[in-house]
From TrEMBL:
Domain called GST C-terminal: residue spans: 84-208
UniProt cross-references to PROSITE patterns, sorted A to Z: GST_CTER, GST_NTER
Family: Belongs to the GST superfamily.
Membrane-spanning segments: none
GST N-terminal domain residues: 1-79
Gene3D superfamilies: 1.20.1050.10, Glutaredoxin (3.40.30.10)
Protein's organism: Steroidobacter gossypii
Name recorded for this polypeptide: Glutathione S-transferase family protein
InterPro entries given in the database record: Glutathione-S-Trfase_C-like, Glutathione-S-Trfase_C_sf, Glutathione_S-Trfase, Glutathione_S-Trfase_N, GST_C, Thioredoxin-like_sf
Pfam families per the UniProt record, alphabetical: GST_C, GST_N
């Protein structure tokens, strides 16, 4: 199994799942900052030119949320996905909530803060996206009160996806009104097999 990754990106989610599962894998670093995702040899694997990509034999899978779901289904003995129908539906609900309601405003903030050329950045869009993130984080803050995990009574892949996204939101200084989420994120990253947090991952590639 091969994981094409770049330390600070959403590949952290997939690395987290692999480490929790104890699965051996080959890490292949693809430097996003240096444009390596747009080289022909990588585009042949992932035509979207994005990270991460998982190669499992002759099976190639992209999109971090889809990859962690695949890994959880491949190794069901680790119980990273609920078997109960309603709990699985809840997991899907919060996974989709994370990648749509939380991740998308963070992407907009990033694009208009440092990804787009300066002349294309819209300060107003950063303000709007920040407000939207805070509104949706407040919904999750309420859901997580009294809970250790997103769904059920043990860790699932939804926790890996969410904890990474919250760390991203924390880097953008948008979680100051969400003490429950901050505490949850901290406890998730204290797990023995947790990956580096985003700040440490950025430092590891000289981008801090």
């Amino acid at each position: 199994m091969k994981l094409y990754e770049f330390a600070p990106t959403r590949s952290i989610r997939v690395r987290w799942a692999l480490q929790e599962l104890g699965v051996e894998f080959e890490s292949i670093s693809v430097n996003v900052a240096a444009g390596e995702t747009h080289r022909p040899e990588y585009l042949a694997i992932n035509p979207a030119g994005k990270i991460p990509t998982l190669v499992d034999g002759d099976f190639v899978l992209t999109e971090s949320a889809a990859i962690v779901m695949y890994l959880a289904e491949k190794y069901p003995q680790h119980r990273l996905l609920p078997t109960d129908l309603k709990q699985r539906a809840e997991l899907n609900r919060w996974m989709l909530f994370t990648v749509t309601e939380l991740e998308q405003p963070l992407w907009r903030i990033a694009r208009h803060s440092f990804i787009y050329p300066e002349e294309q950045r819209l300060a107003g869009d950063v303000e709007i996206a920040s407000r939207e993130f805070r509104q949706m984080a407040a919904v999750l803050e309420q859901h997580m009160r009294g809970r250790e995990f997103v769904v059920g009574d043990h860790v699932t892949v939804a926790d890996f996806v969410l904890a990474y996204t919250l760390d991203w939101g924390n880097e953008a200084q948008l979680l100051d009104e969400c003490p429950t989420l901050l505490s949850y994120m901290k406890s998730m990253y204290e797990r023995p097999r947790a990956p580096m947090r985003i700040a440490a991952a950025l430092a590891s590639v000289g981008m801090a």
